[in-house]
Amino acid sequence: MTETTAAPTVSAGARVGWAIAALVATIVTLVLALQVAGSPAASPEGIPDPGTLTRWGLPIAQAARDIAAVVTIGLILTATLLLPSAGAELQGLALQALQVVRRTATAWALATVALYVVTVSDTFTVPLPQSLAWSYLSGLAFETPLGRSLIAQGAIATAVALWSRWALNVKATCMLLGLAVGGLLPPALTGHSASSGGHDLAVVSLGLHLIGSALWVGGLAGLGWIALRGSKRLPAGVRRYSVLAAWCLGVVALSGAVNAALRLGTVSALFTTSYGVLVLGKVAAVAALGAFGWAHRRRTIPILSRSLAAAPDGRDAAAAGRAFLRLAAVELIVMAMTVGLAVALSRSATPVPDEVYQDPVEQLIGISLPPAPTPMHLLLGWAPNGVGLAIVVGGAALYGRGLWALRRRGDAWPVGRTVSWLLGLLVIAWATFGGIGLYSHVLFSAHMVAHMLLTMVAPIFLVLGAPVTLALRTLPGPRQPGELAPRQLLVALLHSRFTRLVTHPLFAAAVFVGSLYALYFTSLFPALMDSHLGHAAMEIHFLATGSLYYYVLVGVDPSPRRLAPLVRFVVLLVTVPFHAFFAIAVMAETTVLGGTYWAQLERPYRSDLLADQNLGGGIAWAMGELPLLLVMGALFVQWFRSDRSEARRFDRHEDDREDAALAEYNAYLATLQAQEKQIPR
Fold first, then answer.
1. Which of 79, 91, 317, 434 has the CA that lies 20 to 30 A from 608?
2. What is the 8-class DSSP label of residue 43?
3. From residue 572, how far is each of 194, 388, 560, 585, 632 by CA, in Å?
4. What's the structural domain count of the chain?
5. Terminal alpha carbon distance of the chain
6. Which of these, 437, 450, 548, 563, lies nearest to 498 by C-alpha position?
7. Does residue 490 or residue 7 have the better pLDDT?
8. What value does the CA radius of gyration of the chain take, rounded to a whole number of Å?
9. Which range of residues forms the domain containing residue 536?
10. Which of 604, 539, 198, 608 is nearest to 370 (CA)?
């Protein structure tokens, strides 16, 4: 189906001029920022130097990769979620956007290859032509995390370019968007964030910063491309983008502040170092972009809305596009300059050196060894944890936004659900970046407490908070008949074969219990404990498996499988013994699980590793009783409410039957009376 568009709003020469202006702004900003940072400079005499071509080629290749990635993500986002669609299949400019994605994703992959080659030259300090030797190319991949991350990113970019040829509907392009966003993450695992103190917090904050920036900048670039084509769907896309941009601004500002604080170390470094000067420049750019967004809300969106209301058939699309482009063009140039600043920051030395670890313990867990645990330390301790902070802050913000949307509409929401959700987040906070989270990296017993809290306590409160129901009531709906809006996509996910599989009680119970034995009684546990990412993966796994299990048992959200309360109670009783057997097996174990990791800590307290492990097994056994009581209470309440609802339904049905019978009897009497009148006297 071909979409009707108005005449192009901007001449071809103006389009090329804006593109050149954005490119020049990026390069000029990058060069100036590198000069402020004192790089790229030639190596001192006597130290190998890769050459001028490598020194300047490295940031330029990185900027080219970043711009190609951002534009790719923006076009997919625009085609999938920003532009209204008449059905599940992509049409018109949405399909044309995916055709452009093939080229931009290919450029992303090629730029990553170029960056890999230049990185080889820089890492091994050899001239660029020599870096093409296989020994150097393979050495970067096998010997450094940076090389592996670049290979992963290049592979993802190539997959996006290939998949975009067959992604012809909204659901497929949503998955394509997820893959493209995932391609941003490998660099977050290397560089400044990966080699610094507070590793978890640095990596997570950088990953969120990259994702927020890409969706923000890329979405505007995609809408700019649509505006240049004079699409009548632009006003609706801009309104939805405005909401997304506000969220992205918050994510970018908060994550950027956290990451900069970790790199700067002190407030004075913000004003006394070249890195701090670049950070201030980026702060000014983000503030300017926020002001542009406010101007869009106050001026551009009303103009677009009025044009759409005045001419729904698209006659005023060109005028509306010009109103949008006047502000968006300048905004995109500022965004391009921000990309240049970001590249320069990644190539600059930080006030806090990358390698800040003072001892092996700090290198292993990312923080200094905490003192001996006390009740106050366990209750009020603090440990920087990016995963926990992201879940708690993000969960509170999204849930709060949903409540605000309901309140604006005048709809009610049970207070108990809100309290339950907040209690769940509070438990997650304590288990990840609170006192328990602090000692979970040091003591097996504290690790087991954190595990139990994330698996068996927090999920109960979270699922009783009904987040899916809240999302279904507040997510954007279709803007025109047939559109697969975010709300419809969530409904489709709930009714998908995948969801039906994972919500089967046998599957959920098997994953919930089986993962315990697979994790702790194999080599997987010591491997994960030795890695910062391993700790994060375990935390996410514990919370995910627990949430799935209790969603099946006591969840109040819509589900493709509705189990009777008695069936849920039986599943619970069948599962509990296996969890108890696990706790007993831990206590009976005569070897220390992950012993090498715990031995490396050389902690001066609780030095008997096996005794601490036995304590952890006992805690796992004891804490299994608390979720059992909570779930039994929730099941009893749900059972009672179900019976009461069924009783009310039955009473209404009986009342209807009695009313119908009475009406039928009255009609019968009326018939008899009429017949009696017809009998001759």
1. 434
2. P
3. 41, 28, 19, 20, 9
4. 2
5. 79
6. 548
7. 490
8. 30
9. 381-474+485-639
10. 604
Report the 3 state secondary structure along 143-206.
Answer: HCHHHHHHHHHHHHHHHHHHHCCCCCEHHHHHHHHHHHHHCCCHHHHCCCHHHCCCHHHHHHHH
pLDDT reading at 373 higher than 50: yes
Decide if 323 contacts 304 (C-beta within 8 A).
yes
Q: Residue 571: pLDDT band by 50, 70, 90 thresholds?
A: confident
Q: Is the pLDDT of residue 232 over 80?
A: no
Write the pLDDT tens digit of every residue in 612-646: 999 999 988 888 777 777 777 767 766 666 555 54
CA distance linking residue 382 with residue 438, whole number of Å: 6
Please provide residue 231's backbone torsions phi and psi, each rounded to the nearest 5 degrees: -75, 140
- The answer as to whether 26 is a domain residue is yes
**455 and 311, same domain (yes or no):** no
Domain membership of residue 111 (yes or no) is: yes
pLDDT of 473 above 70:
yes
pLDDT band for position 195 (50/70/90)? very low
CA dist., res. 224 & res. 86, Å (int): 21
- Asked if 462 and 560 sit in the same domain, the reply is yes
Q: In this structure, what token pair is assigned to residue 188? A: 């977050």
Give the number of other Cβ atoms within 10 Å of residue 198's Cβ: 21
For the segment 491-515, what is each residue's pLDDT rounded down to a tens digit?
A: 989 988 999 999 999 999 999 989 9
Round to whole Å and give the CA distance between 633 and 639.
10
Instruction: Look at residues 28, 57, 26, 23 and name the one whose alpha carbon lies nearest to residue 40.
Output: 57
**Contact call for residues 612 and 445 (beta carbons, < 8 A):** yes
Mean pLDDT over 336-357 rounds to: 71
The whole-number pLDDT of residue 318 equals: 56
- Are residues 309 and 385 located together in one domain of the fold? no
Q: What is the mean pLDDT of residues 77-105?
A: 87
CB atoms within 10 A of CB 428: 28
Q: How far apart are CA 606 and CA 609, in angstroms?
A: 7
Q: Is the pLDDT of residue 139 over 80?
A: yes
